[in-house]
Amino acid sequence: MRTPACLAATLLAFVLVPGVAAAAGRPDVAALQVALRGVGLYGGTIDGIPGPGTRAAVRTFQARNGLAADGVAGPATRGALGRRGRPTLGRRVMRRNHSGWDVAALQFKLAWRGFPSGSIDGGFGLRTEAALRRYQAWAGLTADGVVGAGTLRALARPIPRSPIWLVHPVRWRIGDVFGPRGNRFHTGVDYPAPAGTTVMAAGRGRVVFAGWDAGGYGNTVVIEHPRGVRSMYAHLARIGVGRGAWVAAGNVVGSVGSTGFATGPHLHFELRLGAASIDPLTALR
User: Fold this and answer.
1) Residue 216 C-beta-side C-alpha neighbours within 13 Å
2) In this predicted model, what pLDDT tens digit does every residue of 141-195 receive, in sequence order?
3) Three-class secondary structure of residue 260 per DSSP
4) Which residues contact 144 (CB under 8 A, 6 or more apart)?
5) How many other β-carbons are positioned within 10 Å of the β-carbon of residue 40?
6) Spatial distance between the Cα atoms of 27 and 156, rounded to a whole number of angstroms
7) Tens digits of per-residue pLDDT, 39-74?
8) Cβ-proximal residues to 255 (8 Å cutoff; 6+ apart), any chain
9) Which residues on neighbouring strands pair with residue 232, listed in sequence order?
10) Do the beta carbons of residue 189 and residue 176 sit within 8 Å?
């Protein structure tokens, strides 16, 4: 019989590409991308990275508005963007029904800290307020849905990472990673494995959910690990473990499918630290 250590090593040996945690872009660049999307000049991902697509969109906007087309979004360019180009994050207390540059930067920061609010669009609506309140509660702040100095200080802290190590739940390459996707945010990693591929527990823990998730994940298993970490295995074709069961790394929990809101067979693997979604690649070895 294999020992748990040997099993973990075997599982790791089957991973074709080692995971590298995604690096967050800059909130100010994300706000610029949102503004450019709003005027129809940027169709890329709101990733906060000042790449060629962002610079080209800035130059086009500048040329259309009689500005020096240098690709740099300085004060004149932001002024020409009107309400989309202001105010800078931290210049006002933010609350529901506000909109603008600072709201887009807030949404980007919240998403990377595990509390996405749907579209990153610069509008402080009900979903942004709900995400903010969840973040404030998680961060030990008063969950009032208002962004003041205390919330901004908390948002300046490092992005949370996993405090434990886990193994990959399937013997397959990773496709989509944790991070921006279009103008939304992907809160886990996807393994585009064939239907029926065995899905294994990523670490020791207790199964706290095994059933149908009405929020779009389909057949789902959630395992509670030490130090406040939970792992989620979604879109399963079959669930192979019951609620309350204790599992170890490598134990079978189900098989890959496409249940729920899925366009094809894959495993959506997600980690939570308390209520915050965290990048699984900060845990996977």
Assistant:
1) 4
2) 999 999 999 999 999 999 999 999 999 999 999 999 999 999 999 999 999 999 9
3) coil
4) 133, 136
5) 9
6) 11
7) 999 999 999 999 999 999 999 999 999 999 999 999
8) 195, 196, 197, 198, 199, 236, 237, 238, 240
9) 222, 270
10) yes
For the entire predicted model, the pTM comes to 0.91
Per DSSP, helices labelled H in 113-179 are 126-138, 149-155
Q: What pLDDT, on the 0 to 100 scale, is given for residue 54?
A: 98
Residue 21: per-residue pLDDT: 72
Q: Enumerate residues 6+ apart whose C-beta is below 8 A from 214.
A: none
- The whole-angstrom separation of Cα 74 and Cα 79 is 9
Report which of 203, 199, 246, 245 is spatially closest to residue 218, judged by C-alpha positions: 199
In the DSSP assignment, the letter for residue 98 is -
Q: Which residue has the tokens 């669009």?
A: 121
Pairing of strands 246-247, 205-213: antiparallel
Q: Where are the domains of the chain?
A: 4-19+161-282, 27-155
Question: What is the per-residue pLDDT for 1?
Answer: 34
Average pLDDT over residues 65-88: 97
Q: Is the peptide bond before 87 cis (omega within 30 degrees of 0)?
A: yes
Task: Give kind and range of the element (H or E) at residue 106.
Answer: helix 101-112
Domain covering 4-19+161-282 in this structure, CATH number:
2.70.70.10
CATH of domain 27-155: 1.10.101.10
**DSSP bridge partners of 6:** none
SS3 category, 200: strand
